[in-house]
Description:
- This protein is mainly alpha-helical.
- It is 64% helix and 2% strand.
- The chain has helices at 30-37, 45-51, 56-69, 107-117, 124-128, 136-150, 163-182, 184-198, 209-245, 249-262, 267-297, 301-314, 319-333, 336-349, 354-366, 370-383, 388-395, and strands at residues 15-17, 72-74.
- A two-stranded antiparallel ribbon has the order 1-2.
- The longest helix has 37 residues, at 209-245.
- It starts with 14 loop residues before the first strand and ends with a helix.
- Residues 1-6 and 81-92 have low confidence and may be disordered.
Amino acid sequence: MSAKGxxxxxxxRVPRLAPGCDPTVLSLSPAEGYLLSRIDGMTSCKTxxxxxxxxxxxxxxxxxxxxxxxxxxxxDDPASPAHHGPGAVPGAxxxxxxxxPSLDLTVAIQRKVLExxxxxxxxxxxxxxxxxxxxxxxxxxxxxxxxxxFHPDRYFRRNxxxxxxxxxxxxKKILEAYELLSDPATRAEVQRExxxxxxxxxxxxxxSSLAARKRLSRLGRQLKVFEGRxxxxxxxxxxxxxxxxxxxxxxxxxxxxxxxxxDPGNQAYKEAFSDVQRKAHEERAKVLIKQGDGALEMRNxxxxxxxxxxxxxxxxxxxxxxxxxxxxxxxAVGDLRKAKEFAAAACEIDPTNAAHRRTLGQIFKAxxxxxxxxxxxxxxxxxxxxxxxxxxELKSL
Length: 397
């Protein structure tokens, strides 16, 4: 371990992309591209070494090289922009009193959560980090990227202290923004509300007496419209809650989504929305998994793999579902890249599961990555010395 500023300065350090860096313009090998895609400001160097699909020394070399090139940085590096200079986060030092190194969250992750939480009152497109006119594909991509960072299930069974509630608040807002912007009907209402809130800032000079009367008349009409929208919102919300009590989750989610769109300032609607939408996601995942099982029975492996992959969008931190998707991609479809990605995710979520480690080792073996396969199979046997399948696989290398 030599590079003080890079990966070798500490396995528990967490790298992130440097501000303004566009990875798409870099010339990267497939292995480098995959490794860089896993650098999200939340994943430690130790985890990257385990899931990168490369020898540990090679992972360290890539990370150290990217640090020197200014592609990535570490928030705990005094020389990084997170602490001073261009791109510094205003007021970042004010978070120091809220950071607790004894928690099962790195200091970098705690700081990231605190920074994100301070901006929860921003417009939805700013929450997701997309343009006002972003298409559904960009909104979806932004949501899943943020979900990987702030989804509470990512930190299951960890000592989070007060950050458990902070993560919950952040994820609720991310989910709310995604759902309202990805649906055309609710997005139109959100954008109308945003335009109305920005209108006073563009009012210009003080109006004349006649202009003032016209403006008052216009405001009166707007007030009637506003009250009408609030009544519509109440109707939608009551309908949604009725559907929720009847366990019609998808219907409930649609109604509450519309209630928020018509009355975006109502906090009660937003509080209920997260619970409703999570149930809707669970229901959607169950439907997709059932459809995937049906496709498997018909031996339509590619369709089954696609359905499980879509289900994972709603249950990204389900280790068993990730490993099912990995085995299907490996054994039936033959897409080892996706198989490795899903198996690595399962190992990241549940690192003490020997069977997940063994599966990842088998996938590495199928890909001809013997050193990586040996590492994972040895890890599987360390966790479960009685794993006969892992033992046979290891002896065959």
